[in-house]
Prior knowledge:
Belongs to the MoaB/Mog family. Residues 16-160 form the MoaB/Mog domain. This protein has 6 helices and 8 strands, in the order E-E-H-E-H-E-H-E-H-E-E-H-E-H. By secondary structure, the protein is α/β, with parallel strands linked by helices. A 6-stranded mixed β-sheet has the order 3-2-4-7-6-5, with helices on both faces. A hairpin with a 2-residue loop joins strand 6 (126-130) and strand 7. Helix 1 (30-41) packs parallel to helix 5 and helix 4 packs across helix 5. It is globular and about 45 Å long. It starts with a strand and ends in a 9-residue tail after the last helix.
Amino acid sequence: MPGLDDSRQFVPLKIAVLTVSDTRTPEDDKSGATLVERITAAGHTVAARAIVVDDVAAIRSRVETWIADPEIDVVITTGGTGFTGRDVTPEAVEPLFEKRMEAFSSLFLLVSFQKIGTSAIQTRATAGVARATYVFCLPGSPGACKDAWDNILVHQLDYRYRPCNFVEIMPRLDEHLRRPKSKGATA
């Protein structure tokens, strides 16, 4: 049965939150505030927070800066995952992924479908690993941020969660970059 293993110690992560919006300000960014509230309530640290406009270069630049920072473990974006002409978060972020997390998109769709029915089809939520950093791109509504955090991320970003979680494999995310080429070795 999945759940928390209290014999394991909690490992706090440093998480950056990026709101993608042409109209939001720090004062009215409800989705970003929802994520910050949940991140800190879970015992993690908000390492950075920013708002950028719906622009591929602006989004990519901010995410690239954060994934290059060894102090940031996770990046969560909110906004820009829909189908309008200005929704470009997946286009900005997915090229940075070394590995795409297909199951996150599928699981988020299942969670959303339970809450909003067939309207869940309108999301292009995505996730992946870039430079040994987890990146999750969520829709811009506070409800979608709550659903993703409460049903998926709070568990997978908790080292105590069993049978497995993202935290326990973090030290191995960049092992392919640290290991010298095998030079013909077969083992």
